[in-house]
DNA sequence: GTAGGGTTAG
């Protein structure tokens, strides 16, 4: 075929019909085999097709194969590389183009490339360069360079300078240039050094003085107001509009949702509906998110049903984003099954779908499931890692959380402050102070130390590692705090038996007008409980309802009952259970049973245990407490009966286990340990200690041995308790005078509690023990709990 | 041949 004919044939084909990649390949092949040199027009179209189908390699091949591609082809390629995020190749082509044949369009493309690559400085530099070289900027140049300004510091000054240039080059009346300028001014407001009202005013003046406006002009100004928190100004403009521009409505609705003004969001949504403005995925996702945040389950489900009924041919993008929002909606309302159903039925999923279903599983504490989703994900974004790390930590998987955090770093991903918070929480779970401190110093180095989530995690970490003062330091030096910080600090004091201080801090919180939430009351109730402050606890329980409108949940009642039980008011506690507006569940009975144990009320204990056996027959704690109660009374037949019951039902007792950190290594001891390599020397050291302790009056309290055996053996059994072994190991290994910090998975044993008082005197060191419930600080023969535990 | 707005994940 005659090459010229072929060319015109291509021209027609290329300009009229959408070209598939296959067709492009065919033309490309023909060009190569026939030696036909296509016009720039054809070349550009082909490059464009390849790029739109993500085939940048072919595009470059085409470019390289054709001798001396002209400026238009080069520019197309720069733009293509830019839109695919490959700045390296874009630069290569641009700078290989001789200066004398570059034109304004090639500069525009390169400036955009830098801007897309989030390199605002290079974009601005190139703009200045082109001006020095004498190229004339056009409206596209300004649109490109102005959009790059949001990426650099001192944007306001640059904005004003470019504003002058715009006027100088006579393009101030071009709508697209004005839009870009307005948008640049609006973006300045995100800098803390800029007064948002002044840049918004500059933007508004531009808007008001525009002779003609397009949809984007309206959107830029309204979205600008919304983003900078001036919802009223945005709404005023919206109400005065004659045109119905969907994007503006959507921006307004999302603004209301972000500011928690849900009523207005719903009202606007309904208005859109009644005015016949097409509701698209943006409107729906915002409104679904409103129902998620506002806890409006029924309304959310109605929206869901409405979408299914009315959207008969939804686009792919519509299905994707709406379903993503729905996953979160069902997750936030505790409906994992529904969330999973939506996810499973989705024809296509993106990063957000995967991240949403991952957090759905994490929130529902289905860690196994979350783990397999995490492994299955096609792309693990830093967010997914973060969700997984904090999910593991918050569900007590400290070791796994920390491991994942380290793995994230090994894979070259930079953990954000939330990921650090997860890792720090992992340390809190493990009681790993060394790791926690290292993470703290990393935070300081990275400048993440002002992060709210990381600092809140630090408070908890230091507290759970036994360093209340360090927790306090973090709390006091935080640039701003939220109710989580207050709750964490109050809890820190409460766990360490400093109930009065916890209450004082709570009162301080009220003075600073921070509203307490349900967590605050849980914390303050346990503070009162640990410190034996019955009157105060009752008072706070009442004010929770009367002054703050928080309906006490089962967990609040459980703490109130715990408070009364510890103080020996078992009958009153019992009567509270009867006055509750719901049937008592396991937490209530457990609190009562613990009270019965402390005060040796076996009759009530048996009744309560029966309830618990029914509710959770596989729970070891009930059997243990009951058998221990019989054992203290010497009723060994009954002990045997309970043990037999356990065996029959296949219930296993969680073995006691304690651990201590020495030089960044965690050493674990079990009851009657024979596993730890140095356990023999630990036993020998303990024997010597006991001799010294007896001189000071220590008598092993064998009532804490819960099996029937000779008293000599009982003393031996006591000496094998895991917490004793860990404490002794600490005395042997830690530098002289350093406090001993030991962690135990169960509650501390009574004889160990007594023994540690004596040990603290013999070795003249502070011993800190964290058990399942709280901390004990032993110093000079006394414990911080005042024996009230 | 080049630029530009609104959403959903912690």
Tags for this model:
DNA-binding; Pentatricopeptide repeat-containing protein; mainly alpha; 42 helices
Q: What do the pLDDT scores average to?
A: 88
Largest sheet: 6 strands, mixed
Q: Judging from the principal axes of the Cα atoms, what is the shape?
A: elongated
Q: Order of strands in the sheet with the most strands?
A: 2-1-3-4-5-6
Distance between the termini: 97 Å
Low-confidence stretches: none
Compute the number of strand runs.
6
Proportion of beta-strand residues: under 5%
Radius of gyration: 35 Å
Structural class: mainly alpha
Description:
This protein is mainly alpha-helical and 789 residues long. Among the domains are: 553-653, Alpha Horseshoe (Serine Threonine Protein Phosphatase 5, Tetratricopeptide repeat), CATH 1.25.40.10; 659-783, no CATH class. 68% of the residues lie in helices and 4% in strands. It contains 42 helices and six strands. It has a six-stranded mixed beta sheet, covered by helices on one side. Strand 5 and strand 6 (782-783) form a beta hairpin. The longest helix is centred in the middle third of the chain and has 17 residues, at 316-332. The protein is elongated and about 105 Å long. 44% of the residues are buried. It binds one DNA strand of 10 nucleotides through helix 3, helix 5, helix 7, helix 9 and helix 11.
């Amino acid at each position: 075929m005659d090459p010229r004919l072929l060319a015109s044939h291509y021209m027609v084909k290329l300009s009229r019909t959408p070209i598939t990649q296959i067709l492009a390949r065919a033309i490309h092949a023909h060009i190569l085999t026939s030696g036909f040199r296509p016009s720039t027009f054809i070349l550009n179209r082909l490059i464009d097709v390849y790029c739109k189908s993500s085939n940048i390699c072919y595009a470059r091949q085409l470019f390289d194969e054709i001798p001396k591609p002209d400026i238009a082809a080069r520019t197309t390629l720069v733009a293509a590389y830019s839109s695919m995020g490959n700045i390296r190749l874009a630069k290569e082509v641009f700078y290989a183009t001789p200066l004398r044949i570059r034109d304004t369009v090639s500069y525009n493309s390169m400036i955009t490339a830098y801007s897309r690559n989030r390199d605002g400085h290079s974009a601005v530099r190139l703009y200045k360069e082109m001006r020095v070289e004498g190229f004339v900027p056009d409206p596209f140049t300004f649109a490109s360079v102005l959009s790059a300004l949001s990426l650099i510091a001192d944007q306001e000054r640059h904005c004003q300078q470019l504003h002058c240039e715009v006027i100088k080059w006579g393009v101030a009346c071009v709508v697209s240039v004005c839009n870009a300028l307005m948008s640049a001014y609006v973006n300045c407001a995100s800098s803390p050094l800029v007064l948002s009202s002044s840049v918004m005013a500059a933007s508004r003046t531009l808007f008001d003085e525009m002779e003609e406006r397009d949809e984007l002009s309206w959107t830029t100004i309204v979205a600008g107001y919304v983003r900078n928190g001036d919802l009223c100004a945005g709404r005023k403009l919206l109400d005065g509009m004659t045109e119905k521009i969907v994007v503006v409505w959507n921006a307004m609705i999302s603004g209301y949702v972000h500011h928690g003004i849900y009523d207005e969001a719903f009202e606007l949504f309904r208005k859109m509906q009644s005015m016949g403005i097409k509701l698209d995925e943006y409107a729906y996702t915002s409104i679904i998110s409103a129902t998620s945040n506002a806890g409006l389950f029924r309304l959310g489900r109605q929206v869901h049903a409405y979408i299914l009924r009315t959207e008969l041919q939804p686009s792919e993008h519509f299905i994707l984003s709406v379903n993503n929002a729905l996953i979160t909606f069902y997750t936030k309302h505790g409906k994992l099954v529904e969330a999973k159903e939506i996810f499973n039925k989705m024809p296509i999923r993106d990063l957000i779908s995967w991240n949403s279903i991952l957090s759905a599983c994490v929130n529902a504490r289905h860690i196994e499931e979350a783990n397999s989703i995490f492994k299955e994900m096609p792309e693990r974004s830093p967010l997914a890692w973060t969700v997984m790390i904090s999910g593991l930590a918050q569900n007590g998987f400290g070791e796994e959380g920390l491991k994942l955090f380290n793995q994230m770093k090994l894979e070259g991903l930079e953990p954000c402050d939330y990921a650090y918070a997860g890792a720090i929480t992992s340390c809190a779970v493990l009681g790993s102070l060394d790791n926690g401190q290292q993470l703290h110093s990393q935070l300081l180095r990275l400048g993440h130390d002002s992060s709210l989530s990381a600092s809140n995690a630090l408070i908890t970490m230091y507290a759970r590692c036994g360093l209340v003062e360090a927790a306090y330091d973090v709390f006091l030096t935080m640039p701003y705090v939220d109710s989580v910080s207050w709750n964490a600090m109050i809890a820190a004091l409460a766990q360490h038996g400093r109930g009065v201080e916890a209450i004082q801090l709570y009162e301080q919180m009220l003075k600073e007008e921070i509203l307490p939430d349900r967590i605050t009351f849980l914390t303050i109730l346990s503070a009162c409980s640990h410190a034996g402050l019955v009157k105060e606890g009752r008072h706070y329980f009442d004010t929770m309802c009367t002054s703050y409108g928080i309906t006490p949940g089962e967990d609040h009642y459980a703490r109130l009952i715990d408070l009364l039980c510890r103080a020996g008011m078992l009958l009153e506690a019992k009567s509270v259970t009867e006055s509750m507006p719901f049937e008592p569940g396991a937490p209530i009975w457990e609190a009562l049973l613990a009270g019965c144990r402390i005060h040796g009320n076996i009759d009530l204990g048996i009744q309560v245990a029966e309830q618990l056996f029914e509710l959770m027959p596989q729970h070891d704690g009930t059997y243990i407490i009951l058998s221990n109660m019989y054992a203290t009374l010497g009723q060994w037949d009954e002990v045997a009966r309970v043990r037999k019951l356990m065996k029959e039902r296949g219930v296993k007792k969680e073995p006691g286990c304690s651990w201590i950190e020495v030089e960044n290594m965690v050493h674990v001891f079990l009851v009657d340990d024979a596993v730890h390599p140095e356990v023999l020397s630990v036993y020998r050291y303990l024997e010597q200690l006991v001799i010294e302790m007896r001189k000071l009056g220590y008598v092993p309290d064998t009532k804490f041995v819960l099996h029937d055996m000779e008293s000599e053996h009982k003393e031996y059994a006591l000496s094998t308790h895991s917490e004793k072994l860990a404490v002794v190991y600490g005395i042997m290994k830690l530098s002289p005078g350093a406090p001993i910090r030991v962690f135990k998975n169960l509650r501390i044993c009574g004889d160990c509690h007594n023994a540690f008082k004596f040990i603290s005197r013999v070795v003249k060191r502070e011993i800190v023990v964290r058990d399942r419930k709280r901390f004990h600080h032993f110093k000079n023969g006394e414990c911080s709990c005042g024996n009230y535990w």
